[in-house]
Design goal:
CATH architecture of the largest domain: Sandwich
Structural class: alpha+beta
Number of helices: 6
CATH class of the largest domain: Mainly Beta
Radius of gyration: 32 Å
Largest sheet: 10 strands, mixed
Strand content: 25-35%
Mean pLDDT: 86
Distance between the termini: 70 Å
Number of strands: 25
Shape: globular
Length: 371
């Protein structure tokens, strides 16, 4: 520590007095010195007040014991859009077929394809029937309401006709030939878009071997710049295979892509398949923060992504409108084995979505309505 010496004028005066005057003179001068010095010291109340002000400036509060950090102000949320999925069991009128332009009030659009998503996936996405009863009645559609307040996205293995039960094979084929699975995938492209804010969904993930459920966003300009330049935010993915079983993860993809993106990595969750969880992102101009049940677990910043903190520099196309996607894939690069294949015993599964909600945060965030 630095040493300090006093240069107070009264100290010099007192020293000269001690050398030239008698003790009777020294005592009054010493008393005068004490009065002057003490008059410059702050009172206990002043000291406490100054200390309290200093702690507040430093971000602390005083509770009578040790100083504690001042809690950050809670963000102001304003709900701007939601889907609650209430209604009787069966198909919902809020979902349009891909071949028919969405009508007013239809938020979601079904995708019809067996292309495999570029990931060697094994399902054919349909808006039709994926399961029949033995008597030949419809048991489940690819996307439907379960009558209990949930949207159900059902993936089922393709089975041949058996007695009165028809085959559930799709009319089209998959990229590898006859399809092994049928499933559902819906999006809000061309109907509703989002930019910044808090996006969350309460989801129960299917406990189905080799399933690959996802809740994610794509840039609205994908028709102009293609993927990955449009940007992709995977809010929730889960892959029921090998080391990824019982785990979920969140990821960003942008140009250039190495296939892995910028993400949280697999995160173990012991009740992933038995309980509903709220998966979400807090998204603004400078970052995307992933959240599980309201608590953050990973953040990717614009500065870090463009600087190359994750292997190499990448673009940041996350300052534009994006649309939502919900789907259940089967197999592929994440859901399947090393070849993307699905275990022969896996029959598929169901992802249940209780609600999807979008809120602005401190006044930042907007819904872009196209219909």
């Amino acid at each position: 520590m630095a040493r300090f010496t006093s240069t107070h004028p009264m100290k010099g005066l007192a020293m000269r007095a001690r050398r030239s005057m008698s003790h009777r003179v020294i005592l009054p001068l010493a008393l005068c010195l004490s009065i002057v010095v003490l008059s410059e010291l702050p009172t206990q109340a002043q000291a406490r007040s100054e200390n309290r002000a200093h702690m507040q400036r430093a971000g602390f509060t005083h509770t009578g014991g040790k100083p504690t950090p001042t809690p950050a102000a809670k963000p102001v949320l304003k709900l701007l859009w939601s889907q609650e999925f209430n209604g009787k069991a069966g198909r919902t009128s809020s979902i349009a077929r891909e071949t028919i332009a969405p009508a007013r009030g239809q938020v979601w659009q079904a995708e019809i394809t067996g292309a495999g998503g570029g990931n060697r996936e094994r399902q054919f996405y349909t808006d039709g029937v994926v399961e029949y009863t033995k008597s030949g009645k419809v048991a489940h559609y690819a996307v439907e309401l379960d009558g209990k307040g949930n949207l159900a996205i059902n993936a089922r293995r393709v089975v041949p006709k058996s007695g009165a039960r028809p085959s559930n094979a799709p009319a089209g084929t998959c990229w590898y030939g006859p399809c092994e699975f049928v499933s559902g995938r819906i999006n809000t492209r061309g109907t509703v878009g989002f930019q910044y804010g808090l996006i969350e969904a309460r989801i129960k993930v299917p406990n189905a071997w080799n399933s690959w459920p996802a809740f994610w966003l794509l840039g609205a300009n994908i028709g102009e710049v293609d993927w990955p330049a449009c940007g992709e935010i995977d809010i929730m993915e889960a892959a029921a295979n090998g080391a990824r079983y019982w785990t979920h993860f969140g990821t960003l993809h942008s140009y250039p892509s190495d296939g892995f993106g910028v993400g949280s990595g697999s995160r173990y969750l012991e009740d992933l398949y038995t309980k509903y969880h709220v998966f979400g992102i807090l998204w603004d101009k400078s970052k995307v923060q992933w959240r599980l049940d309201g608590k953050p677990f990973f953040t990717a910043t614009k500065a870090g992504v463009t600087r190359g903190d994750w292997k190499f520099p990448r673009s940041w196309p996350f300052d534009q409108e994006m649309f939502m996607i919900l789907n259940v894939a089967m197999g592929g690069t994440l859901g399947g084995d090393a070849n993307g294949d699905v275990d022969p015993d896996s029959m598929g599964g169901t992802m249940l979505v209780d609600w999807v909600r979008y809120s602005s945060v401190n006044g930042v965030g907007k819904v872009v309505r196209h219909s």
